[in-house]
Amino acid sequence: MKAKLHNANKTREEREIQAKAIKVRLEKFEQYAGQVMAGLSIQLKKQIAQAIPAMLDHMCSPETTAEIVTEAMKQAPILTKEDEKNWRDVRNTAVSLVSGLIEEKVQAWDSTNMYFDKMEHNLVNNFKKEFDLIDERHHEEIQKALDPDLKTVPDNTKRAAAAADEDDDDFSMTTGGKIALGVTAPLWIPLTVATGLSALVLGLPIIGIVAAKGNISEALEKSKFIKMYRNEESRRKYFEDLTKKASNAISENKELVALVERRLAKPITILTKLMEAIPNLVAADRNLLDVLAAESRGQDTLLLLYQPLVGGCRLLQGQLEMFRMKNLSKYLSLDRILKDNPKKIGSGQFGDVYKVTILADKKTIVGAVKVAKAPITVDTVTSFLQEKDNLRFLNHTNVLKYYATAASVHDGCLRVGIVTELCQGTLMEWLKDYKTPAKWGRDHAAMRRMYERSFSTIQNMGVQLCQGLSYIHGKGYIHRDLKADNILVTTDGTVKLADMGLTKKMADQTGTICGTPLYAAPEVFSENAEYNQSADIYSLGFLLLEMWYGVPVYEDPVFLKKVVDKITLPAQLSFQSQLPPIEPWQQLIKKCFQRDRNSRPSALACMKELKGMKI
After folding, report:
1. Which helix (H) or strand (E) holds 356?
2. Listed residue (500, 501, 526) closest to 513, CA to CA
3. For residue 604, which of 504, 471, 475, 494 has the smallest C-alpha distance?
4. Predicted local confidence at residue 142, as pLDDT
5. Are residues 603 and 536 in contact, defined by beta-carbon separation less than 8 angstroms?
6. CB neighbourhood size of 13 (10 A)
7. Which Pfam families does UniProt cross-reference here (predicted)?
8. In this predicted model, which residue has the larger pLDDT, 128 or 429?
């Protein structure tokens, strides 16, 4: 639907150009995906090859042999005078006893060391991580062609993010991964049900034992066997020899590879499904591309056709995500977190914030949980999950750190919360309590040293703000609601971008007017409302003013009127008793307030300018 809506906003010539770009990117993506999947296949084969000697080392070790012999001596049948005529049955029973003990020892080794369980877990996790990267690469390749302004994320940063995701609370995978595997659950473990696999017990191939029987059964005649078996030392030596021959016969048998493959059936099945999914994914893209390229209807007709369907798609998305949260996802219990009546430390339009203590990564952590005031609905679940996913993915000193998601269901209603690091308060709260440079007024000359310290403090906070903004822009995101109330400050003065509910991948930006109107860039209100990361830079201009003056810009009626009248904004407020920003500060604000979005500096450029300022 998004592709068709993008298509509707383009002329036929522009569509043809995009179609060619997508074809090239699809070919590159297919090559990339093929290389990754080939690497995973090699990894699986190596793991299988490594498992066999590890198992044999244990099975053939002197310690294991001694344990089997001791146990065999205890359980071995007694050969009485009456049993001599059935001596072959005794011998066969002894061989079967040894084979059973060998299998028990290997199973005990696997169970105790969880060798195959660990191998399976590591393989499945790595398959998940690699496929998530493939899925993200696929998304970015297509969206980059649809939106040439999109900056793709380098592979190394995506890998770091994927590694950070590994310990997430709900172990979710991407939608593409779920579709590829033919399951909708966010857990990989239920794949055993989807693929018909159940817990497998390690069973040694009987061919090896049969071979051992063949090697030994004719080795001793009746009289020699009976004489040997009745002597305890000879019988012990017989069981030791039998154990070694049986172990060697098993190790030389090719079916041992099949045994390991059977034990690792889950990752093998997953990899097979993923390898089948890549060509299907590309084929679906090519089919869509053909449909888009063949579209001959005009822009007005297409917009009239597809625009109303967007609402229906969003409703369906909300319903699916609600089902997932209620039935498939694993979260911390919100009831348990809130049962001790934690201290409320903040409250906003959409939720309350409490100081809480949770256990994360086997450590007790003091954090904050933001709890939605109203139960989540199909209309609000997407925004909530978007904020959660943004905080999970964006890992930076100047972005609020995510710990976990908490949820509880009562009478069918879902209450949710996001647990994050604890901060002192919002940037606006901090600014109101701090004597910013403007507040020194005429005293700034007499109190030069304190004025300089005040400037140095807000300069540092401005640099941190730009660092956080530059980071999320580098990841391909737009914040879309940048203001001092959505920025937090820790007790040591670290600035944290927060309230990420409206933050979106630039490629996913569909022209929705959102955020706080006062701080929004002019292009946000344009007819198509198409904007990019420079919209955040326009909002940064307001923040730089507020950081200098220590008050919200709307407290200045003169400045507010200019915002409402949509005229070029000044780089200072009209408070006569307060000190205006230094010239470099004003020049940077003017650059941020450029109405032409292409003329605004990047967040990185703003950071460099701030760093270089002196008073």
Report:
1. strand 351-360
2. 526
3. 471
4. 62
5. yes
6. 8
7. Pkinase
8. 429
CA 132 to chain centre: 8
Which of 468, 469, 476, 313 shows the shortest CA–CA distance to 397? 468
Tokens coding 503: 């933050």
Which of 561, 609, 562 lies closest to 585, judged by CA?
A: 609
Selected catalytic residue, list 481, 499, 536, 556 = 481
d(Cα 503, Cα 535) in Å, to the nearest integer? 12
Q: Which of 209, 195, 213, 207 is nearest to 258 (CA)?
A: 207
Please state, as a whole number, how many other Cβ atoms lie within 10 Å of the Cβ of residue 282.
16
Walk across the sheet containing 413-421 and list its strands.
Answer: 332-333, 402-410, 413-421, 363-372, 351-360, 344-347
What's the pLDDT band for 78 if we cut at 50, 70, 90? Answer: confident
Whether 481 sits among the annotated catalytic residues: the reply is yes
Could you tell me the CA-to-CA distances from 168 to 114, 162, 331, 590 in Å, in that order? 23, 10, 10, 42
How many CB atoms neighbour CB 67 within 10 A?
16
pLDDT computed for residue 193 by the predictor = 32
pLDDT at residue 79 greater than cutoff 90: no
Q: Between β-strands 351-360 and 344-347, what pairing exists: parallel, antiparallel or unpaired?
A: antiparallel
The DSSP secondary-structure symbol of 76 reads P
- Tens digit of each residue's pLDDT (9 = 90 or more) over 190-231: 333 333 333 344 555 444 444 444 444 445 567 787 888 888
CA distance 425 to 432: 11
Q: How far is CA 275 from CA 29, 126, 189, 271, 357, in A?
A: 14, 14, 19, 6, 43
Strand duo 487-489 + 425-426: pairing: antiparallel
Please state the separation of Cα 437 from the chain's center in Å.
Answer: 42
- Span 87-107, average pLDDT: 83
CB 108 within 8 A of CB 71: no
Containing 364, the helix (H) or strand (E) segment is strand 363-372
- The pLDDT value recorded for residue 318 is 86
Query: What burial letters (b/e) apply to 318-345, b meaning 16+ CB within 10 Å?
Result: beebbebbeeebebbebeebbeeebeee
Quick one: pLDDT at residue 527? 60
Q: What pLDDT does residue 610 have?
A: 97
Alpha-carbon gap, residue 406 to 421, rounded angstroms: 14
